[in-house]
Write a structure and sequence with these properties.
This protein is of the alpha/beta class and about 290 residues long. The chain is built from ten helices and 14 strands. A hairpin with a 2-residue loop joins β3 (about 85) and β4 (about 90).
């Protein structure tokens, strides 16, 4: 089946409609936290990187922060090592943190860089270890090398942005003794967005956003304030695995990020719909 051709006049209308949004974000920093199924589907991965290349081309200073849990689990399985989790967090001994560096700072990071470059973007793949970008400490001794973020040295990221590069950052960190930790990618993205005084942070997930009824995809909440987010958590509407994601959103907004969007990374071109249309996509979190 051939793809339906969009008439040129409609293409021109779409481009003209996006102009106010391009002006809004031009020269501003936008942090994209990339993860979920959008990372494991090759077609989706290509579309996400194409969207990122596009917004960067029109003047948005774009930062990509990624994790890679499924790929790490797959490598550990090949190594004959079972993945063990406590409260949703991977127990990370010395073998696991070595594997995490291979997968996150190696395979995944460089594959994303390669894809972005295929769309003509200048980009640089780094990890939170480089130049002490992300400093962490032990989150819980029971978890091993799982880090809690304590500081962000944003200078290397801003240097890359000023030179026209897209920084592609894996969520590894280190402490002052050079111990390496795996840090939650949502937390890393929120910390980087706050330190960079980002205009927006886009958090890609495997659901359409915050739902009033988790079993009803049509119950999407398109927008809420920090105060309303707290109320929804008290009511139990924000629960389970959505709690830490919303906490990252709230922390980023309270630290100075203008807005944070939780959106479904499985939807083609969700980033463009969010940034360059009236309706947007997902759930927008902002201050009062």
């Amino acid at each position: 089946m051939t793809e339906k051709r969009v008439p040129n006049k409609d293409r021109a209308r779409i481009l003209a409609h996006s102009l106010p949004y391009i002006r809004k974000y031009a020269g501003k920093v936008v942090v994209v936290k990339y993860g979920g199924n959008a990372m494991t589907d090759d077609n989706l991965k290509r579309e996400v990187m194409q969207d990122i290349a596009l917004i960067n081309t029109v003047g948005v200073k774009t930062v990509v922060v990624h994790g890679g849990g499924p790929e790490l689990t797959e490598l550990l399985k090949k190594m004959g090592k079972e993945s063990r989790f406590v409260n949703g967090l991977r127990v990370t001994d010395s073998d696991v943190i070595d594997a995490a560096q291979m997968v996150l700072a190696g395979k995944i990071n460089k594959s994303l860089v390669n894809l972005l470059q295929s769309f003509g973007s200048k980009c640089m793949g780094i990890s939170g270890i480089d130049s002490g970008l992300l400093e962490a400490r032990i989150k819980d001794p029971e978890l091993g090398y799982v880090g809690e973020l304590v500081n962000v040295n944003i200078e290397p990221v801003m240097d890359l942005l000023d030179k026209g590069y897209i920084p592609v950052i894996s969520s590894l960190a280190c402490d002052k003794d050079r111990n390496v930790y795996n840090v939650n990618a949502d937390t890393a993205a929120a910390g980087i967005a706050a330190a960079a005084k980002a205009e927006n942070m886009i958090m890609m997930t495997d659901i359409s956003g915050i739902l009033r009824d988790r079993d009803d995809p049509d119950s999407l909440i398109p927008e809420l304030t920090v105060r309303q987010a707290a109320e929804l958590r008290e009511q139990g509407i924000i629960s389970g695995g959505m709690i830490p994601k919303v906490e990252c959103c709230v922390n980023a907004v309270n630290a100075g990020v203008e807005s944070v969007v939780i959106l479904d990374g499985r939807v083609p071109h969700a980033i463009l719909m969010e940034m360059l249309t009236d309706e947007g996509a997902g759930t927008l979190v902002h201050k009062e």
